[in-house]
């Protein structure tokens, strides 16, 4: 035996993620009694093999493609909530499907979890007798689900009455478009505000053109601030924030109004942030 002491490594707890299946509504479990079980089992044996699909994955594929007309589950289905979820999925895709839970469900003398019955283009008397018996058992035991009986779940395309098309006269049609008499003339000329006219008369250097005022204020309240008021506003901004540079303040003074430029502060990272040493740097 070696003299070296054996050290036990501190194993970190492994994080495991588990899938959780939640059922926010109640689903009736269509469990049948012994008499109905023997009756359904005998009728199931008479159904042709081409219409029977055995296995959970194969049955779910048929339910997904909406080709099944009946579904049989074993009463010992585990987990039980997954069986209810399969029933809910089948009823959503096929509202008229017949579903029963039979104890000791068998096909060819072997236990099965799920058996799906497929319909066909041609009518099969053995299949019709099985579906009629299942429908009778469902109604007698009250297994009808609210989802199947509600008209909301069944999507029906309701034909809306079409409104008769009314003919428009050429005069009414011409009113929808703006026309111009000359090629050099605009079809739409906006209204010039009184403030633009006054500013244009007072300052001949600025070419306002066709000015559209977007402000809701009156022309009397739109007076230009003096240079002293502008300097005071700039100084107050510098005292409050302290982040406006000299260049931005000079630009403010050059403006003819109380214009303040947009300043975006750089977002700094957290210096106390812990870095993962094992993380590889992206090249």
Automatic annotation (TrEMBL):
Residues 274-283 have a biased composition (Basic residues). Residues 249-283 are annotated as: Disordered. It comes from the Eukaryota. This is Uncharacterized protein. It comes from Culex tarsalis.
């Amino acid at each position: 035996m070696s003299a070296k002491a054996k050290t036990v490594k501190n194993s970190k707890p492994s994080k495991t993620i588990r899938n959780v299946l939640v059922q926010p509504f109640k689903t009736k479990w269509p469990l049948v009694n012994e008499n109905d079980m023997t009756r359904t089992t005998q009728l199931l044996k008479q159904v042709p093999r081409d219409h029977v699909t055995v296995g959970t994955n194969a049955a779910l594929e048929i339910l997904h493609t909406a080709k099944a007309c009946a579904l049989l589950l074993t009463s010992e289905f585990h987990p039980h909530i997954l069986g209810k979820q399969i029933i809910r999925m089948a009823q959503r895709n096929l509202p008229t499907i017949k579903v029963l839970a039979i104890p000791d469900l068998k096909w060819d003398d072997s236990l099965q979890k799920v058996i799906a019955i497929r319909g066909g283009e041609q009518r099969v008397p053995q299949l019709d007798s099985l579906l009629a018996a299942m429908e009778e058992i469902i109604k007698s035991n009250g297994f009808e689900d609210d989802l199947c009986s509600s008209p909301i779940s069944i999507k029906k395309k309701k034909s809306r009455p079409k409104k008769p098309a009314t003919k428009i006269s050429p005069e009414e049609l011409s009113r929808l478009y703006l026309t111009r008499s000359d090629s050099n003339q605009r079809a739409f000329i906006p209204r010039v505000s009184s403030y633009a006219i006054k500013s244009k008369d007072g300052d001949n250097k600025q070419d306002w053109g066709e000015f559209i005022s977007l402000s809701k204020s009156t022309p009397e309240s739109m007076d230009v601030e003096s240079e002293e008021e502008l300097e005071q506003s700039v100084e107050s901004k510098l005292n409050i924030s302290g982040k406006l540079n000299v260049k931005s303040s000079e630009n403010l003074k050059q403006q003819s109004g109380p214009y303040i430029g947009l300043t975006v502060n750089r977002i700094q990272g957290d210096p106390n942030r812990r870095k993962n040493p094992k993380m590889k740097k992206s090249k």
